[in-house]
Amino acid sequence: MSTQNDPAPRRHEPAMHGAPGHALVTGCGSGIGAAITGRLLAGGWRVTGVDIRAPRQEPAGDFRYEQADLADTGAILRLCANCTDVDALVHAAGFMRVNPVGAFRPEDGEAMWRVHVQAAETMIDALAARMPAGGRIVLIGSRTAAGAAGRGQYAATKAALLGLARSCAAELAPRGVTVNVVAPGATDTPMLADPSRGGSPPRLPPIGRFIRTDEIAELVAYLLGPFAAAITGQQIVVCGGGSL
Questions:
Q1: Quick check: pTM over 0.90?
Q2: How far apart, in whole angstroms, are the C-alpha atoms of residue 184 and residue 187?
Q3: Does residue 15 carry a pLDDT above 70?
Q4: Residues annotated catalytic, as ranges
């Protein structure tokens, strides 16, 4: 039984009634992050989009852009301090540097770690405690987390996301806050043509085409929605059969 002195729990509309809330999406400027931002806005979410560069065209809907370098922990903490009512966190920002064994570049590994893993750690630590029951966290990983020649440093950061997600999921499950990883295979984004990937070209999946960003966005939207409350601590691989 409750009394008048009991604090009223904040209700989480996405999980309980299907009504979208406020999502913080990193990497909103292009690629998967931009597709997720557009999909959530179309679904009625209020979105705070974070990127080092603003989107070329501001998305339609209840959108607010915040400029931040996700390699800068101080910038992330300032961002999180200004986002006091986040219902969902989607960490989609990322980049790839490829170096074979014998030519690892510590600066590349550190840069990817800071954006992929340390940024996720910092945001989860700052935001999860303030999320309502039924909050959602989705980290964009990679099928490469299972290992790929020439991509060891990149794969290490994406593999770390799964350990982070499962650990946080175990802690947050009693509150109904879910934490999952969506791990795409080769996706049709500007990253495919990034010259920094050098001699590690993407492989066409068995389905005969690259993954589309809207396919990833739809899956993320589902994980943020009311019917995904029982899915937590999971890595969902979207690879077009590439991992078979």
A1: no
A2: 7
A3: no
A4: 154
